[in-house]
Amino acid sequence: MKISIDKTLPVSLQAQIVGAIEYGIMAGTFHQDAALPSVRALSKTLGVAQLTVSHAYNALKTMGLIETIPGKGTYVVHERQVQILDNQVTELRQRFQQLLADGEGLGLSPSFFIGLLNQDPSATLTLPFKVAFVGNSNRINQCYLETIQQTLNLGLQADSFTFHEFDELQDTALESYALYITIPHCIPRLRQRLADKIPVFAPYLLPSENTRMQLAALPADSQVLLVSRFENFIPAMLEGVKSFAPHLGEISVITLDDDDLPQALKTRQIVIYSTGCHSYLQQFPAAEVMFEYRHTPEPRYLRESLLPALHQYAQKKG
């Protein structure tokens, strides 16, 4: 479990620590229940003040991503609901293994069961209830929902809301949804209003396949500039680029409202921008390569956590 910072970046050290750990949790690198270094140990490793690490940990606790257990240490939060679903997935696997064993006793190979599953590959199960996705942008929310439906082969009755729209929902409308989906660090914001009445899920987010392919194709000697609308997104964005393009050397970062942006764009061959920056960047001369850094829900989480929850609720409705 590696946490790194860059003291040359125009981003506070606290924000970098928060972003690095948040990205690690989203990407599944920092697994649920994983122990984090103590404040003293991490401050020594990174060469920063203990107070900086302490403030970063407090911010992550407020986001609901980590927790400190007195006398034991600090850990990535493992939601009770996720634990229940993990147990259910384990039980399903055991039952499936037993089914295969029973089939073998009848002279049936595993391919027989695969054939049953593939008899109608175009069939899509439509669930008899509504879900809602809450995020920063309805355009991005819809992309996430499409990915979820395609990955799980489900027909979801789903609505999309920005956080402002979610805050404006009446209680009756709020309670018309079976469950809510959001981005990881925003779970506390939804739960503050929903309490424990309606479950909230947050898929791990990874750079999309197209983003990963573009990152991998960049020449090692590229001069790369990362542009983000928000300073607090830069650390997670930087971690994602480093993870999927470890061959890159010099990487600079800047926010969209920085006065030095026009000059920075002139001196970099490659510009990678976060969602929401494209229309603003169009007013400047285009770099040799310019593309959007976009996240997508991680498939394993969708199949092993979200899908069982959806089926469980469907059974209750049935």
UniProtKB/TrEMBL annotation:
Q: Which InterPro entries did the record assign? A: Tscrpt_reg_HTH_GntR, WH-like_DNA-bd_sf, WH_DNA-bd_sf
Where would I find the HTH gntR-type domain in this sequence? Answer: 11-79
Name the source's superkingdom: Bacteria
Q: Which SMART domains match?
A: HTH_GNTR
Chain coiled-coil ranges: 75-102
Do you know which Pfam families this protein is assigned to?
GntR
Q: What is this protein called?
A: GntR-family transcriptional regulator
This entry's Gene Ontology molecular function terms read:
DNA binding; DNA-binding transcription factor activity
Gene3D superfamilies for this protein: Winged helix-like DNA-binding domain superfamily/Winged helix DNA-binding domain
Q: Which UniProt keywords apply?
A: Coiled coil, DNA-binding, Transcription, Transcription regulation
- Asked if the Swiss-Prot or TrEMBL record annotates the protein with the keyword Coiled coil, the reply is yes
